[in-house]
Design goal:
By secondary structure, the protein is mostly helical. It contains 5 helices and 2 strands. The radius of gyration is 26 Å and the shape is elongated.
Amino acid sequence: MRRDWDLARPILLKIEALEASDATLGPDALPGYYPEQVSYHFRLLDEAGLIHPDCSRSLNAPLHCWARSLTWAGHELLDQIWRDTVWNRARGFIRERGLDVSLHTLKIAAGKVVEGLLEYRSHKPPKPQSPAPPQRRPATVGSSPQR
């Protein structure tokens, strides 16, 4: 089975959206994917240190996992890639360079995209302001006005 980032990212998003601390995400929670694929990706994300799953395997049965929560590293990665704009640009950045999407390249590419967005936003021209009223000279205490 191949790693699929188009499955891994929604898994991370759904785990983050769990509302109760005792809630879990089951392998049938992602429409369009077989439970075995989802469980496999739960295991991969666990091995990468991104989620906390519980897995079991019965004799002659496929791996069956439930995800409980994200790790700190999982939250850190998701903070970078949760926005579709960053996700799409990071994947495009990797593809343009002919690289495979690995966790390492994804972190670097997402970081570059975020860095570029921060740079762009900090260099936006300031909004035009209304002209300031003319300054008046302060009156001198104890002196008479001159004409």
